[in-house]
Design a protein that fits this description.
The protein has 288 residues and is of the alpha+beta class. The protein contains 10 helices and 6 strands, in the order αββαβββααβαααααα. Helix 5 runs parallel beside helix 10.
């Protein structure tokens, strides 16, 4: 380890301290071309709190080296856990949990990869919420001035809505079959995992027609309409036959409510017969 980065082990590790150490490292290494903070610790709205992690984008000539080797993260603190995964917007990141609970995500990209990525509307929207440049040797972090975040993606087409609806209803019947067979884990995983991602997508389609939403399920309790939020307490299951069955039916009801409103908002005919037949198939499976 480079002795210039030796740490005062008595100094409590904080996200701010990690940020400062990473900035020094980035400035002094030629292969690091840029370093920027994104996410809650750079946002103007809904800024970070004690539970927030530190999200960094590291632009480097050698992203694979940082992703494949984990020794470098020890320069900034004593790591407990580290692994790599794909980021929601593209590329990969190294995620680190330091021993005192400080968590940092290092998205590692080449300058060329970042130039391509920043053209995406969702990335521009992310940066429009706020960012803080720590190092920029090649003027990588220049964006058109955005007065507010861009809408999350495009408005759905009729094909988009029908694709999502068919996917959700298919898996509602599929999950009912698995549950009836006694495969509770499998049924619960689909009901509370894959089907919830589709349900969230339909909630976003409905909501985003008149209101700003956030990526994934971030702050959904704040941006989802009240008439939909009242369903939230019943759509997730605990491990049990009756509990999963109840969550499955409640999820179907919420998808139907959000979907009908989304279809109507776009002037698209609501496929009520698909829900009627799907519910009947589920009732037959469960012997209702």
């Amino acid at each position: 380890m480079d002795e210039r980065f030796c740490r005062n082990e008595e100094e409590p590790l904080t996200h701010d301290l990690v940020m400062k150490r990473v900035a020094v490292w980035a400035r002094e290494n030629e292969f690091i071309r840029g370093l920027v903070i994104i996410g809650s610790r750079a946002r103007k709205e809904k800024s970070g709190d004690q539970w927030s992690d530190l999200d960094l984008i590291v632009c480097t000539w050698s992203p694979d080296v940082l992703l494949e080797r984990g020794e470098w993260i020890s320069r900034f603190g004593s790591p407990l856990l580290t692994f790599t995964e794909k980021t929601p917007l593209g590329g990969k990141e190294r995620r680190v949990l330091y021993k005192n609970g400080v968590d940092v995500d290092f998205a590692c990209l080449s300058p060329e990869e970042f130039e391509t990525l920043k053209k995406k509307p969702e990335v521009r929207s992310l940066f429009a919420r706020g960012y803080s440049v720590l190092v920029d040797k090649d003027r990588l972090f220049s964006f058109p001035e955005e007065k507010k975040p861009l809408p999350q993606g495009r408005f759905p087409s009729e094909e988009d809505l029908m694709q999502m609806t068919n996917d959700f209803l298919f898996h509602a019947v599929w999950t009912a079959k698995k549950l009836k067979r006694g495969e509770l884990w499998e049924a619960m995983s689909c009901c509370d995992g894959y089907m919830k991602s589709l349900l969230l997508g339909m909630i976003r389609y409905y909501t985003s027609l008149g209101k700003e939403t956030w990526h994934s399920a971030r702050f959904v309790e704040q941006w989802a309409p009240p008439e939909l939020k009242s369903f939230f307490t019943g759509i997730f299951a605990s491990y049990g036959y009756k509990e999963i069955k109840s969550a499955l039916y409640n999820s179907l009801d919420l998808f139907s409510l959000a979907g009908e409103k989304a279809f109507a908002s776009l002037g698209v005919s609501w496929p009520e017969h698909l829900f009627r037949v799907t519910r009947q198939l589920m009732d037959d499976i469960f012997g209702v």
